[in-house]
Specification:
There is one protein chain. 2% of the residues lie in helices and 61% in strands. With 659 residues, the protein is mainly beta. It has a 22-stranded antiparallel β-barrel. Strand 29 (556-568) and strand 30 (571-582) form a beta hairpin. The longest helix is centred in the middle third of the chain and has 7 residues, at 287-293.
Amino acid sequence: AFRMSQSFGKVERLEVLKGPQGTTFGRNAVGGAISVKTEEPGFEEFYGQVQASYGSFDEVKSRLYLNGPLTDSLAFSATLFQEERDQYGTVVTGGIPADTQTEDGGRIQLLWQPNDRFSLKGTYFRIDSDGPGGTTAGNERPSALCVALGCTPQNGHDIETSIPIFSKTENEVFHGIATINTDWLDIKVRASDQFVFQNSRVDFDGTPAPGPVFGTYQIGDYQTAEIQFLSNEGSWQSDWIDWVGGVYYLEGLTGYKPITFAASSLLDTTNSFEDPNNVVGGTLGPIVQLLGDLGLPAQTGVIIQDSLIGTKAISFYGQFTMNFSDSLALTLGGRYQEEERYIVKIATDLLGADGSRTPVFDGTNNAVDRDGNPVPSSNTDKSFTPKISFEWRPFSNGNSNFFSDDTLLFLSYQQATKAATYNAVPVLAPPTFVESEELNAYEFGFKSTILDGLMTINGSFFHYDVENLQAQLISLVASGATSLQNIPKSEVNGFDFDATIQILPSVIQDLVLGVGGGFLETEYTDFSNAQGYNEAGIYSDSIDATGGQIYYAPDVTITATLSKTWYLFDNPLEAAVDYYKSSQYYLTAENNSVFVEDGYDTYGARLSYFYEPWQLRTTIYGQNIGDEEYITGCICNDFGFVRNIGPPERYGVQVTLDF
């Protein structure tokens, strides 16, 4: 999300909201939310920014940002951006070198503000990306099954696959917000329409050997509407009560239309899936025997499936903060939500060489639970999730010589629910029902400035109880490319902090250390029937993972930045070094010892000079200095450890001109 924010133009602030969110805006979020606040179109003057950079792997980035008035009541802002780079290693797919990775798009905002009481803002955003992207995944440790088929390990960023892989994504968003300010309250009305389309081809085994291939037409089509009421200075009891409330509605359609599965020897690699009904080519080949072993239709070897899930949700939320004094406040909030998930279509066909489709299985009205018992093809979750928090400023009267007057202690409890859904990509089996996830979150924290303002520190201790955590599983043997399973009970205990420290200011001016970290202890308290892979790499649906760790949850993460500013010819010269550490974590829910990120440390550095008369900033940077290899994602499956690796060591220069 932070990387995406760089494409929005000037970002006023980036808020990372930890824990459940849902009593103040938008959709209920179980794990937290990231709020990107962009700079509003301005009426004062016209201004802008041009930014360009060049770096390792022929990486070229450019961005243009404009902001200013069109009339006395109409203003605009606009951003155009473009990125292009070569692959990080030698990537050969189907005997063809992989294309460059490209990304481009733009955002435009129009703000109409005829008076101080009313404003209307419309936003259009679009981003397109093209290139292998996340499909660039190599099999570092092939399973015994994969080795028997001729698979060889893939090392580092050098990857070879049996067929051309690619990923093309289009994301388009329309958003509007009307704000009405009255003497009693403020009203905000929001609406959005978002469409996401991804066309990709994935080599499932991640090696040059012939093996399963997936081609996807994945879509996401979402519409939202929200009305929000907020207190202002004229509201009832505004001298001690702040409140917000609203209604939020979402309607969406997600899934594949279609997803195609084949042996690589059967695929027409010249097609690039531009026509989903014209993907067959080549001969059946020896891979067909494998398809038969997996229970797939060996007589054709090509399966095409439409898999679409619909969502309708309406929520009512509210939050009251009662400020009993300058030092003590109580917040009470809640969210009532009804969310329906329903199967629109799940149909599996055999695809003929002439593009014909022979029906094999229709799962639209044949959903089952994990035990195989029939369940309805539509499910509605109704939930009320409360929130309560206390805030205390113990030194608001200035009675401490060490802590600042605004030192804050807080204690909170809140709940959240993630709605139930269906596994929509079974190959030749009924779609399975996935139960709703429920979270109880407890937190105690503090915020303070100490050492006469030289150090700002925030921290919190937290405990989460999670029921039916929804965890991803990737397996063909489990009759699906990707699916979710429920982890009955798990818990998280942790502590996180961030601090900004001015180091020895009387000796060294403008030397600042920013440091943050997170420490987690996670455990599955009940996960006796886990689906996943045993230590031999064989799929099982009866693994006892109780006592294991939540996947993708490292015990320790640390970030640090040390910066120093000098003045060269009366203009600031800043140098900074960055550090990030992550401890070991599992990449699959069942804690298979093969699918593990062993932990890593990365370093970066930058040197920036800002020439104020020209409003020109030049920055030289280095990222991942030391060339650390680390995992960013895993298509861990029956064929082995198919993983994505993060960017290697790279350097570059960036120029930014404000005007």
